[in-house]
Amino acid sequence: MNYVDQHFLLDIMEEGKFTIDKYGIHQDIDSPTTIIATSNPHGAYWRESHRIADEEIPVIRTLLDRLDQIYGFTDSKSEEEINEYADRKIEISKRPQHNYNFLIKYIMYAKAVKPKLKPEAITMLNSFWQKLKVQGIATNNI
Questions:
Q1: Chain segment 49-90, per-residue pLDDT in tens
Q2: What DSSP character marks residue 98?
Q3: Which of 25, 86, 117, 131 lies at a CB distance of 3.0 to 4.6 Å from 121, suitable for a disulfide?
Q4: Domains in the chain and their CATH numbers?
């Protein structure tokens, strides 16, 4: 995604809405957004196999800062690793498919649960969040 489009995505993430100005119509459209993104490194491989630097990820810094979780995956470089990976892929493809219907039911059930917290629990959760925020682990996203 080019950097101009990333700025539009950042605006939607920050505001929770976007604006359309076409044909004399000015309309704000609510768009609560969850972003799941993938990215390849500049070039074919990450510079270091054990660590990925932020500047290697082709995403604007402000957008990268808003992502809660970032996972790095590295390619196998040696012929032995590539062959081992191919063999594992074949083994996995031979396994029977999972039935995820239970997961759909579980998610529907989990959405229906509305926990009621006692004031003591709320105080404990707030204290825990504050400690994580000071350590740089927590975000302000809800």
A1: 777 777 888 888 888 888 888 887 777 678 898 899 899 999
A2: P
A3: 117
A4: 3-134 (3.40.50.300)
